[in-house]
Amino acid sequence: MRIDRRSRRRIRTRGFTLAEATLAMVLLGIAAAGVLLPFASGASVQADGLHRTLGAVLANDLVEQIAATSFDQIVATYNYTESSGQLKDASGTTLSNSIYTNFSREVSCQYVHVPQQDDAVASNFILATVDVAYGGLSIVTVNRLISK
Rounded to whole angstroms, what are the CA distances from 98 to 20, 84, 86, 94, 103? Predict the structure, then answer.
């Protein structure tokens, strides 16, 4: 059986060459990376938002605890740092939930004078500052002025 030139050419042109298949895979990989990249960065942004939200809750809870304390005891009681994984709730119990392990808090309270107040008179205001960090980076700082 004899195969003419046209049939031979058709037989040779069926399928893909190795170079064509490789080029198609590279182009498909680039397209897939372009589609998947926003999903990966979106997950990172979502995790960062969760850390900031939890940090704000931790800071606000401590500020409310400070405001509920007797005015004369605030400065003596609330000047400390809670290291990573050693956060305490209002009752003094260490928070054992694993979502708090990388959080740390620093609280400072100091007497302040407002511009209208005479410096010779004892201050009627305390500035409470709570700084919450996640993984060593400060994410939330809450300041509150507490009056007598």
Answer: 51, 11, 11, 11, 10
**Cβ proximity of 55 and 71 under 8 Å:** no
| Tokens describing residue 75 | 């400065």
Give this prediction's pTM.
0.69
SS3 96: coil
Whole-number Å distance between alpha carbons of 48 and 148: 37
Question: From the CB of residue 117, how many other CB atoms can be counted at a distance below 10 Å?
Answer: 13
Report pLDDT digits (tens) over 90-148.
777 887 778 888 899 999 999 988 777 677 777 889 999 999 999 889 999 999 999 88
Tell me the C-alpha distance between 129 and 82, whole Å: 14
Sort residue 36 into left (φ over 0), alpha (ψ -120 to 50) or beta.
alpha
Model pLDDT, residue 43: 78
Compare 26 and 2 and report the one with higher pLDDT. 26
The pairing of beta strand 137-147 with beta strand 80-82: unpaired
Q: Structure tokens of 138? A: 């400060």
